[in-house]
Design brief:
By secondary structure, the protein is α+β, with helices and mostly antiparallel strands. It has three domains: about 110 residues, Orthogonal Bundle (Butyryl-Coa Dehydrogenase, subunit A, domain 1), CATH 1.10.540; about 110 residues, Butyryl-CoA Dehydrogenase, subunit A, domain 2; about 160 residues, Butyryl-CoA Dehydrogenase, subunit A, domain 3 (Up-down Bundle), CATH 1.20.140.10. The protein is about 50% helix and about 15% strand. The strands form three sheets. It has a four-stranded antiparallel beta sheet with strand order 2-3-7-6, with no helix packed on it. Strands 1-4-5 form a three-stranded mixed beta sheet. A two-stranded antiparallel ribbon has the order 8-9. A hairpin with a 2-residue loop joins strand 8 and strand 9. Helix 1 runs antiparallel to helix 3 and helix 7 packs antiparallel against helix 10. The protein is globular and about 80 Å long. The two termini are about 20 Å apart. The structure holds flavin-adenine dinucleotide. The site of flavin-adenine dinucleotide has 22 residues, from strand 1, strand 3 and helix 11.
Length: about 425
């Protein structure tokens, strides 16, 4: 991967960002707190995004999308998340759930499902994690067995975001328990398939307006036409390819979360008076705001760089995608925490908007691979690349020693 990032924004990218900002101001800002309180999804905002064609931005033109790529996704998710991080993830998971079809599906699967997603007629979910298989995504127990032409999918998934709203669920199941590398396959499950159901909608600390569910696959019967790519054994590969492309989306959610918290904190600091002056005049508040702004800006550009790489189809996007996810989510948590501090006691109150940012930020360090797992991925790639630094051998004293490298990481990474 070329470390010189060629970040380009097309007119279409900027137009999508502008449109997302309009939707955020019109539908998200005024309703975010209430939807959070009631744990209800903002259907109005979703419909507005669907009507504007936003759900087709990452889908190739030949399958009914606009072909504006991961960059468009990142720019829109950032704008949505500035107003409501929960909506940001609900939107982004449509990419996460449809990407396995984009990266691994047959032409027929793409032609059948992607136009529906692009038109906003089918919402998506991505069902990988299970009760006993989170970071260790290779340790799934949901399985699919074949009898004649029919696969039967059985088991339960945990934390399926959008689970109760989705029409298309990409479900990862064990098809060859004996195999190490070809153990898992990905299937397209439709919400109307007999045997698919929602066991529970989770009660969460943050992102409360987006439904995250336990999903049940009780003898869900599908044909080979629902096996992504048409051949078994490629599910793990497809899940990792998907996560590489989806991580700029969740990282953009983090940038939006940080940016939204920063804007709120700056506005509040200019309005709140203590000791006869706006608290924005105090140097300690200014230093906090300045640090929050620097971190947010740095996170923003690593996300854009990652999106640019993803759209260019660069080899080795895994490392920068992990960096973008890890760095921006740590920034979101730090910035949201400082923003609460700037709001003082009001920051602790749920009728002020900032507490929600604080609660919404935390999950960013956990889902789509925890930040511990991201650090493992980054380090593993650094170690792999270290052989390129032979020119340093002459400046490191001592004998050249055998390189042991790192254990491979097969985590939700
Ligand atoms: C709100 C929410 C929404 C989600 N949405 C989805 C979704 O849409 N689809 C989906 O498939 N999944 C989803 N997830 C699941 C999410 O990706 C997992 O929670 C995450 O990957 C971590 O898995 P775990 O919770 O089982 O934690 P564990 O894997 O049990 O980890 C527990 C702790 O141990 C650490 N740890 C684990 N392994 C290692 C290691 N090798 N080295 C160092 N530390 C380690 C972790 O970093 C963590 O701190 C969601 C989760 C939540 C909470």
């Amino acid at each position: 991967m070329n470390p010189l990032y060629d970040i380009k924004f097309t007119e279409a990218h900027l137009a999508w960002r502008e449109k997302a900002h309009e939707i955020a101001v019109k539908y998200l800002l005024p309703q975010a707190l209430q939807h959070d309180k009631d744990s209800t999804f903002n259907e109005e905002a979703f419909q507005a995004a669907a009507d504007a064609g936003m759900l087709g931005t990452w889908i190739p033109k030949e399958y009914g999308g606009s072909g504006d790529g991961i960059m468009a996704l990142a720019l829109m998710v950032e704008e949505f998340s500035k107003a409501d991080p929960a909506f940001g993830v609900a939107f982004a998971v449509n990419a996460l759930g449809s990407l396995p079809i984009i990266v691994g599906g047959t032409h027929e699967q793409k032609a059948k499902y992607l136009p529906l997603v692009a038109q906003g007629k089918a919402a998506c979910a991505f069902a990988l994690s299970e009760k006993f298989a989170g970071s260790d995504a290779g340790g799934l127990s949901v399985n699919a067995t074949k009898d004649g032409d029919t696969w039967s999918i059985n088991g339960e998934k945990k934390w399926t975001t959008n689970g109760s709203r989705a029409n298309i669920i990409t479900c990862f199941a064990v098809t060859d328990p004996e195999s190490r590398s070809r153990r898992i396959s990905a299937f397209i499950v439709e919400d109307t398939d007999p045997g698919f159901s929602i066991k529970k909608v989770e009660d969460k600390m943050g992102i409360r307006s987006v439904p995250v569910c336990e999903t049940v696959f009780d003898n869900v019967q599908v044909g080979d036409d629902r096996l992504i790519g048409g051949k078994p054994g490629f599910g793990f590969k497809h899940s990792m390819m998907t996560l590489d492309l989806a991580r700029p989306g969740v990282a953009a959610q983090a940038v939006g979360t940080a940016a939204g918290a920063l804007e709120l904190a700056t506005t509040y600091a200019c309005r709140r008076k203590q000791f006869g002056q706006a608290i924005s005049g105090f140097q300690m508040i200014q230093a906090m705001l300045a640090d929050m702004a620097q971190k947010t800006e740095a996170a923003r550009w690593i996300v854009y760089a990652t999106a640019a790489h993803a759209d260019a189809g660069s080899k080795g996007v895994t490392k920068i995608a992990a960096m973008a996810k890890c760095f921006s989510s740590d920034v979101a948590v730090e910035v949201a925490t400082d923003a609460v501090q700037i709001f003082g006691g009001y920051g602790f109150m749920e009728d002020y908007p900032i507490a929600k940012f604080y609660r919404d930020a935390k999950i960013l360090q956990i889902y789509e691979g925890t930040n511990q797992v991201q650090r493992m991925v980054i380090a593993r790639n650094l170690i792999k690349e270290s052989s390129r630094h032979d020119y340093l051998n002459s400046v490191i004293p001592g004998e050249t020693q055998e390189s042991y490298g790192a254990e491979p990481v097969t985590a939700n990474s």
